[in-house]
Amino acid sequence: MFCNLIEEYSIRYLEDDLDGKEKMLLTSHINKCKKCRMMFNVIRNNYHPEAAIPREIPPVSAKVSARINNGLDGNRYPVSKAETTPFTRRITVKRVILVAAVIAISIFTMANAKGIYKTYKELVNLLFVDRALFGISGTQDTWLYDDEEYVKGIYEEYEDEVNSYIAGMDTAEISRLKYDVDGKTFRINIAKGVAGNFISYGFEGYKTFENDFARKYTRAGSESILNNRVIYNSIDELKSASGICPVPGYIPRGFDLAETAVHYMNPASRIIGNVGMKYEQEDGEFLIIALTRNKVAVNGASLPGELAYAGWIDLAQGQSQEGVQSQEYVPGDVIEAADINGCQALYLEQPGRDSQENGEYKVLRSINMYLGDGAKLPILRVESSCLQKDELVRIAENVAIEQVEQDEIRPDEYFRGIEDGKVLAFAGEYLENIKAGKSEFKIKVDKDTEFYKDSRNDTYYITYNSVDITKVNSYVRFPFTLDAGFLKQFEHARIQVTGRPYSRDTSYWCGFARGRDTLFSIRYERVKNVVDESSLADLLIGKMRHTEMEAKPFFSKSGHLYYLIEDKIVWIIDTMYEVDGVVYNYFITVQKEVFRDEEDLLGFLDSLR
Fold this sequence. Notes:
By secondary structure, the protein is an alpha+beta fold. The chain has 17 helices and 26 strands. It has a ten-stranded mixed beta sheet. α2 packs across α3 and α2 (20-32) packs across α7 (148-167). It is flat.
């Protein structure tokens, strides 16, 4: 690319009119040419999308196009392909002139603001030296490193080399390649799967992209929420379907009902997670009214402690939210605690992540009313980015919650993940503590069993102490049998079950101890329902490709895949098993003293059936 094309390419980029190859030419050039980099930044900072001229390109015959292109000196002026005709050039030139005029005005304004310069050349020199004049700090070309088309084009340059490298890899092996691209590190991560290869690529410190095979398994690794949500056309339909409904008595003028919906806890259950409606204005602004179990993340410095417990509020303290890709998660600030219709309430303000306007985030405002300890949907939330606090309060004050009896906590729904009858016998006592607003309590089931809650969230815990090794399977169900000879070296086991209300999913930790020391432990948690196109081995490979530790794959004699991670004093084994159509992730941690060496450990894994 030549310097005389910087204006055209800059504007065409801003109008998303460059193909992948042209973007590569542009970024390569401005990385090397300081003046063009500064010119691009000036054009971008002064660019106005409304100045773009609609593209109505008249047809041009091939003969006319060829005669014009043949008349150009190809050595000095690169000839564009057929789609870039002289007519499109004319449109591009008009766009350049529009932006150039803005730049000229900016230069004139700055010249008068900072004093008269002796010559135009002096001002131009300042333009390319004093970046602070334009609020530019450092090189501002990071936009390209997050552009999928451009990054994919870089990857394609190395694709043949990558394919050759993969050919020499073993199944389940994980490798990381690095290349220097215009002074920046370009990473390509590879995991050789069974049905395909997991490949992700991108510039170090910027967004990472995946090939189609990896993207499919990334989606397969988490539950889809699409099957969890059912949309209805009216509030009456919503009431009939959900059994409980917030019915608004006041809606500000200009808002029309867009949809009503029920969101269930997971695809297999009919346990409601939230229920409500969305109203919209013609300009797309929205208002949401919902009954929900979803927590509110807040910076809690000014939050009354009792409301934090009662309202299931997350005291986020500025932490990042896991699973939000390429976005910083910003907790809301507690602006005011209030009493609405006899209920405790919080008014929150939070940056709206998906509503960026003019480079700044809108503020998402919400009223969060806590409806009581006996409700399974305990929070009434009214939120909008266009309404102020007084309007939100007025809406919340006039919401009637119909069929409230459907919102009462029931033990058979709340503890769907517990199978131990002796623990379930204390379910009523546990819920009475919840209804009384207690955040921490412990119930003694028997001398070795405790049923308790010890944090601000609604997670419950069951612990079994000094369990007879031979009776472990009566508390947890392993998909393999532990050899009796292996178990003889341990004296007893400790087991902890962790669960969440209304969910069948529980996670287990089982530790095998000698005296007070736990030498061997197994932890497992649900991953997902099996989908037909996902093999168990590829699910594990797809997950392990993200680990930063050295993970060695091992296939047992039965063909089951394990990954081994070695620490100074322990081995960590990561694997997956399918049980009754559900995939669980298993983590085995074992002190090195339990096995003579790695070969002995691998022999143990071979014995698991």
